Records
---
Amino acid sequence: MRYQNLRAFRKHLASAAPDHLCRCYLAAVPDDYERGMALQAILFHFSDCPHITLNGGEAVCRQVADALLSPTLFGSEPVVVLDEAEKMGKKELQALIDLAGRSPLYGYLLCGARSKTALTAAFEKAGVVLDLADEKPWDKEKRLAEQIAERVQNAGKRLASDAIPLLFERLGSDAALLDSEIDKLVCFVGTRPMIERSDVFRVSAASRELTLWQTAEEIVWEGESASADPATFHSLIPALRSQLQTGLKLTDLCASKTPREEWTSYLPRLWPKILEKRSAQAARLGRSFFKNGLDLLFQIELLSRTGAAHEAALLDFFRISLHHIRR
């Protein structure tokens, strides 16, 4: 059995425990923190069993077999946790596959891997696989957003809808960092029931996304041909969208003749000097520039999801097209 959804996998564990848990589990999860959490979620249901922790870079299958095929003196079944299974040699990996297919297996084998291995197919037949190895960036972001909302709800708080996109803009999709920031935010708001966007600005320090934010500013506002790593494509998209939406908001504020002293309530993130600079730029560029820019951004994001073009080419296309819109 294979799960490509973390929530469904957890439901399986909850419904199978304690009497119907499988003998073999594999967590194929690229992120070390998330893989560790997945293994801990499985191991939670074996808290009364002795367990041995091994690493694929050092372990040999004989160690695993000795632990799993030998009954203990006290009658409890052993649990072997083998992480980084992808580091095992071909012979050792094949021996592990043979071991997983052996019936009956005395004890439980919990494996973790950063990527798909030959174990995936074997464990899918012999047990259960959590397979996030091929998870798309947008699917991961959606999953992490759901986990953030659940974490906040479990803490007895609510999270403003515009706070989650900001967390991704500033921190990326690092699950460990996001969990840490949510814990800090829950403590920061104290007795307040709602975590607001402004709280994220006060508490959460920008990591590598600061560079992406600056890149987005240069592309949108300055018309620079800023270089961007194609690997950061899906992290740069929200930053570009935010800059274009800011420009659109500024042109709307001008068109509606909203008093200047009220602008900061609509755009709390912008410092007064930056707000003055951006408002002048927005007036010069015009509303159609930001509207067309958002439409163009939607097009390249859609193309990236269909696999029709490489991210580097899409970024070049966006920059060049935006330059022509500017003119």
---
Amino acid sequence: MNDMLLPYDHPTTVVIVDDNDWFLHTLDLRMPADMSYLSFHDARAALKHVNTRSPLPPISERCFSSNGSASAWKDPMIQLDLTLIEQEIKNPERFMRTSIVVVDYAMPEMNGLEFCREVTDRSIKRVLLTGVADEKLAVQAFNDGIIDRFLPKNEDGALDLVVKFTRDLQRRYFLEQQKALEDSLRADPPQFLSDAAIVRHFAALQRKIEFVEHYLVGDPPGFIFVTASGLLYRLVVLSDRDVEAQVEFAKNAGAPRSILDSLSTRDKVGFFFDDPQGAGEEGLCWSDYLHDATPVVGRERWLTALVRDPPIDVDYTRERASFQSHLDRVDALREHLRKQSTAVRPEATPGFGPSALQG
């Protein structure tokens, strides 16, 4: 799937485990503001948190359906229902999924390798922080598949490498989570997913509107983009055949000649989210369903349109389900539990920061 856009992507949570309050405080100052993370001083509390499975399984375990759908790509044995993918945007718990643990080797309750062995979800990526004397053990653990990376803790730039490793491993986490989707999509894939021109257009839009999550959708094909503050965009991606189908749809639904001309000349593309049969005697205001077309030429010529605040058939609210609202809740929780932790452990370093989360 490395040559394809991911069918979906959203922020997840990094769990950091270290009994050294000074290190947690220093790392807390270095962590990016847009990264969801929890820091634990207590390894047992951290392990309990990591091994507590979310009540809602990952998308890759929920997006297959036995019922037919107009927005499904199929193979003979299994059906991928895209309507189940876009439903994820209403689930605030999606950001709390642990994708990576960063754990110190030398801890009193259990060492970092013991911690990594006891993580029950093997899809979670594991980074071990080591001292000089621990490096041989770390190399062996890496070779044995117990950890995914190791990092000398006292090395110059170690904190920056922690951030880099988490970014890299979150990408790997999503690639591996979506293996079942890859197998299904390869049976009859939407071709734009692997077209280099669309990949470049996707990246340019990400820089422009700064969306932090995306979800593959159908009818019409494309993506839902969601910014950190919860703004929604719909990227429509149509092949020439898709456009011809839209022209035929509009013609059969009684669209005026001006609408048919806009579609036929490829000046506009349609996002027909209402059924013309239910529009009543006055009919549809067809111009509301047309958007300026941006051509993207790759293996074939695509027509794209970016629609802000699109209608969606999902019970979604920004206040409850945006990434920023999640970060605000996590920040408040870290501060609350830091105070609890300091009260329980009066020997803790004063002012070691809000990131030492006692689970």
---
Amino acid sequence: MARTYEPIASTAFTSSTAQVEFTSIPGTYTDLVLIGISRGGSLSQALNFNGVGGVGNTTYSQTRLYGTGSSAASDRYSNASQIDVSHTTSATSLAIAKIAIQQYANTNVFKTVLVEHAAPENAALRTVGLFRSTNAITSIKLFPYAGTYAEGTFSLYGIKAA
């Protein structure tokens, strides 16, 4: 049986890191999957593509559903500057996220992003995001909203067409 997840790149660190970035992503796959395990100084983390993001940028939209074990909430942002990929109740907890980026190299469609995030104190987040650009995604940047990552491992995989 052929392997469908092909490793593209991986990074691991044990000291303060402000962001994680994957660059020069080849356009030879149909989809991407990013798996991250991290601990950071921020309650929330985000990502953007191709260096597009930041204050005043409105290229992204997202719908989120999140909970902490005792309450749940949802929200929607139509003109966001990034896509949220985590929501925890403790900045010191170790959390895991799976981020699926569909049709990342297709220059005829906007890119859909599906996020599943969980942290040990019962925090969970599900996000459906949209990168409203037809440009192929060639770089991904992940970053905490405040502070730095204390430690983490991030691995990027390409998915081959069946």
---
Amino acid sequence: MHAPTASGSAPRRALSAAARGWRGWTAALALAAGGCRQGPSLPTVARAGEALGATFSVAAWGRDSALLERAVRQALDSVRLVDSLLSTDDDSSEISRLATAHGRARAVSPTFATVLRKALAVSRASQGAFDPTGRDYRRVVFDSARGTVALPGRLVLDFRGLAEGYALDRALLPLAALADSAILGLGGQYLIRTAPRRPGAGSGAGRQVGMSDPDNSLRAVALIELPSGTWAVSTTSQLDRPGEMLDPRSGKPATRARAVTTVARDGATAGAWSSAFFVLGCDSALALAGAGGGQLDGVGVLCVDDRVRWSADLDGRVVLATDSGESAGSGPAPGPGRAPAGARAPSGSTPRPANPDSSR
């Protein structure tokens, strides 16, 4: 995935801040040129830190730099709190301690319960394509009334994707009331907030996020235009995790898609469904996603296999890009398909050019 940019500028040879792997995320994404700035005079505060095995970065624009600085520090604290609960790399984290309970029920924090509830809901909706156990989510014993969790056998939990998105959601809370705009990034995900254009301020600049070509992370295969508001964008790609992304239902490598970018209103949803869509493949992802046709209202998807396709709610907001930096144009979304995973490719999709420099 590429850093957000201001609409109207051509996507050049390589947009800055390309992903360097699933957990490797450069701090430059939060420092992306004033793509979220609402005016040249607004102060900017930017910080970065480590969390969940990746680099968390935040850049915010607002009118009061002192209050903005405090809010950015609170955002970092929020991400570190989520890290202390959900990091699988820290033996003292809540998720690691649960793995050593040997099947006994243990009380979990409200935050942990919230994330687990979301994970199990997406697991059910995706028919196991997203699975926080990597094996069989149905064996997790979760007593929501008592706030306890038991993992029978050798089950362990890993909220990868969803955890990063949830951390971004929490980090945005202290910024929401103070920042005109903000870009937050963690582990291959963005959470982008832009204020509506003020009356009399002109047409204003839109926001764009680039999807990396799965053959070359330094080249954008497409750009997604985001309107004002809060949007989460999460990408899962073969380039970032070659052979590592497994289908939890079979234990074999997921090969139906080459890259998936999911757009949603919150980070937890975008992160979890990005993983699920990658496993399901483009046909089923397009059948499930998108308002006015899919089952997941408010969740859009841009998917690459042998073609570049997107859900109906992204129609008119996707710009295919060439290496030369010229717009390759946008076109109609494919017609809605049918779930589940065996669905045929919907019509109206765009073949992926064999030559990356060719236009649509």
